[in-house]
Amino acid sequence: MTRALLLVAALIGSLFLSVPTASAAPSTTWLCRPGSANPCGGGTDAPVDCFYVYPTASLQPAQSANLDASPELAFAAAAQARPFGSVCNVWAPVYRQATLLSLATADGPARDAALAEAYVDIDRAWTDFLAQRDSNRGVVLLGHSQGSRMLRTLLQNRIEPDPAARDVLVSAIIPGISVRTSDFTTVAPCTDVTETGCVVAYSTFSRTPPPDSRYGGDGILCTNPASLGANARTPVLGPLPNLTAQCDSDNVLMIDGPGAAALPTLPNATWGLHLLDLTIPLQTLVDLVRSQSAAFTA
């Protein structure tokens, strides 16, 4: 298996379905947690915690993954979460996610069941995470694609109804899904780098989305991480140089600059730059967490 194929597997996202609640799950298996060597870096000096949920990555030939910390999960975490190790202590649960096979071949009810099982593990991991950490530390929710879907439901089910959880929410960074402006009642879009308790959600495109696009549209939240509030066309910092970003009238984060039009739209144009949702503005997002964490701890 080539690294390129593993990257595709790690970053291709989940499809259309909301996540219902399901039955009990075993105790949490941690892919990453502070104080140990792991693909997220294992730092212990950062002022806040990141609760990271990786995207659809499992190559297992089943509808739902098991709880093995398999190499493709580590690859996804190293690519997406490790850069945040300088600004937060990263916790990342292994979960029985809907696999790539499930999302490509299963019918609607089967995918619903797989996503429900996945959320059970995330809900359980959140409970375990709260029991093991300093309750006064701030928390950043960090995800992508299926991981963002899990965190959106966690925000709705466990954080918005809980004043103590809301009080320690630094931010939720959940790109790669369609977050509606009506999804949350207390968590609002971030409008400033020093604002806390807010959400950053977007999907990246470099060309006008087709009519059957999976992302964007009326009522969908697009938060420009490079220009919170103002949404000016602004450079985004990451491994791909000289790119700029601005949310457009389709409510997607439109990427422009040298080479932007050649960036991969996989598996097809309806997904936009889904594989690169976190990658393109990676340093911008790390800097945002640094600023928000400073504001929280102050």
From TrEMBL:
<dbReference type="Pfam" id="PF11288">
    <property type="entry name" value="DUF3089"/>
</dbReference>
<keyword id="KW-0732">Signal</keyword>
<dbReference type="InterPro" id="IPR029058">
    <property type="entry name" value="AB_hydrolase_fold"/>
</dbReference>
<feature type="signal peptide">
    <location>
        <begin position="1"/>
        <end position="24"/>
    </location>
</feature>
<protein>
    <recommendedName>
        <fullName>DUF3089 domain-containing protein</fullName>
    </recommendedName>
</protein>
<dbReference type="InterPro" id="IPR021440">
    <property type="entry name" value="DUF3089"/>
</dbReference>
